[in-house]
Write a structure and sequence with these properties.
It is found in: Endoplasmic reticulum membrane. The protein has about 525 residues and is an alpha/beta fold. The chain is built from 14 helices and 18 strands.
Length: about 525
């Protein structure tokens, strides 16, 4: 505690731990959680006994790689409003996140949001570097060391252990079509609802993939109105899937496909063999271009090809939007798939992903920068209408102007309410992996309003050879204690000894001093 002001000698701040999970037997993120170390600045630390504290803007990739190997812990202070970062600072954060998640890290790594108190601590820790400045005289360095305030960082989250009862939910519902010819083909509309970033509790995923979820929910609302009237009932079954584990290699889609293929009777999959497709939605408010990603170019006059033509035709209503196709083969040697449609393409189902991103390598797909403040609601609403119009034109085989208008139009208030709700809470996979999760149940209830036969299935990691594992510590409290350096204790001890020596001398020599006086 501070001998001058005991009240200011201790502080508490909420901190958010870096990602910690295993995927396909490979460890990702920070493997440790407990911290009890002296705080040092980015330029003042030297050993594994130090916890490095740094502002985000000051921390470079080279700094991080050196800290990861030699320091004891790292605390990164984030701006209190990430949306205020300029483009250069945002790019810096994107690259830093990517580098931090590229391999496992043995030391604890935490993130904290800027506060005035934390800024004061940062300044004082940075000033302590002066004592190590070789340009200063020995006396100046000594005085600086004695006067400096040190800090001890303590985070005691308990033992980090594998999370138990992991259940990654996938929600399913459908609208039944009708055809006089008998057999009714099926279209599946898929979006994963989880998010990703360097820290689970800071991952809000507004665009990736809150936008995909919002568009799927709006499509369910619009087409439920059409399918409720026998006169406007489409000739295609529509299956809606909100999948979990999208950010961990699309585990929800993988498990759902396995369940469908095992259920030979009444399986939805059997309908896919007859002129239909799987449409996945991912990151749909980023730019003015809309891309249709495929693993194999669709044949002429195939359902996917015809839908692409309808998409380009519908885009004529929106001069600012361009529609293009992107072909990328599936690399079976890679453990991680690029897009969700690849899960279905591997099963030889015609599938594609609609996205405003041209490449799956765009860093915006997994960052804490993906917040509500950085999402363009107008673009999201515009792309919702474009996809709805194209899908309706395909289902009803008509291209005569817009289908959704008037009372049956894309509702901007609906999309805004949903994106506000989805981004009001972090949605990293491990935070949603408990059974009866509140967000999952709320999405299920919304499905029940518009769809039939709503079901929830769960992807559960195998106990012997799990595809994925989560760990149970994602946030904590850092206790910051104000301490003086060891040299201060040495000088204080010497001063006390000198004081006691003088008192002892005065007592012993008091008669002599008295008589002399």
């Amino acid at each position: 505690m501070s001998p001058v002001n005991p009240v200011s000698g201790s502080h508490e701040f909420p901190v958010y731990r870096m990602q910690h999970f295993d995927l396909h037997g490979i460890a990702h993120g920070s493997r440790s959680a407990a911290v009890n170390l002296e705080a040092r600045s980015l330029t003042g630390w030297s050993t594994s006994r130090h916890c490095v504290i740094s502002k985000l803007q000051d921390l470079t990739i080279d700094h991080f790689r050196n800290i990861r190997i030699k320091a004891g812990a790292l605390l990164v202070v984030l701006p209190n409003d990430l949306s205020r970062l300029n483009s250069e600072e945002k790019q810096h954060l994107l690259l830093l996140e990517h580098a931090m998640l590229a391999q496992e890290i043995s030391i604890p790594v935490y993130f904290a949001t800027w506060t005035a108190e934390l800024d004061t601590i940062l300044d004082e820790v940075s000033q302590n570097v002066i004592s190590n400045d070789l340009s200063k005289s020995a006396a100046e360095a000594m005085i600086s060391s004695i006067a400096a305030n040190g800090y001890q960082f303590v985070v005691s989250p308990g033992t980090t252990s594998i999370k138990q009862d992991i259940k990654v939910a996938t929600i399913q519902g459908h609208l039944s079509g009708y055809s006089q010819e008998g057999k009714v083909p099926t279209i599946a509309i898929v979006a994963h609802y989880d998010s990703f970033g360097v820290a689970p509790n800071l991952s809000f995923g507004a665009d990736s993939n809150g936008s995909g979820v919002v568009i799927l929910l709006e499509l369910a609302r619009l087409f439920s109105n059409l399918y409720s009237d026998p006169k406007t009932r489409g000739k295609y079954n529509l299956v809606f899937l909100l999948t979990g584990g999208g950010k961990i290699n699309y585990q929800g889609s993988k498990k759902w496909l396995e369940d469908q293929l095992d259920a030979l009777d009444g399986s939805i999959i059997q309908y896919f063999q007859d002129s239909s497709f799987v449409m996945c939605l991912d990151t749909l408010s980023f730019g003015d271009s809309l891309y249709m990603h495929v693993s194999k170019p669709p044949k002429d006059n195939s359902p996917a090809s015809l839908f692409f033509k309808e998409l380009k035709t519908a885009a004529d209503q929106f001069p600012a939007i361009t529609v293009d196709g992107v072909h990328k083969k599936i690399n079976l040697a890679d453990d991680i798939l690029a897009w969700e449609h690849e899960r279905y393409s591997i099963r030889r189902l015609p599938a594609f992903t609609l996205s405003t991103l041209k490449s799956h390598r765009e860093l915006i797909r997994g960052t804490i920068l993906d917040t509500r403040q950085n999402l363009n609601l107008d673009k999201l609403t515009q792309n919702t209408k474009l996809i709805a119009e194209a899908l309706a034109s395909f289902i009803y085989n008509t291209s005569h102007g817009e289908i959704f208008g008037g009372s049956l139009d894309v509702d901007k208030k609906f999309t805004e309410a949903w994106i506000n709700y989805l981004t009001s809470q972090p949605r990293s996979p491990q935070l949603l992996s408990n059974k009866d999760n509140a967000l999952v149940m709320f999405l299920k209830d919304n499905f029940n309003k518009y769809l039939r036969d709503v079901k929830v299935s769960y992807a559960i990691p195998d106990k012997r050879d799990p595809d994925f594992l989560f760990y149970d510590v994602t946030k904590g409290i850092v206790n910051v204690y104000s301490v003086k350096p060891a040299i201060f204790d040495l000088v204080l001890t010497l001063a006390i000894i000198l004081y006691l020596g003088i008192v002892y001398f005065l007592i012993q020599k008091f008669p002599f001093l008295y008589s002399t006086a």
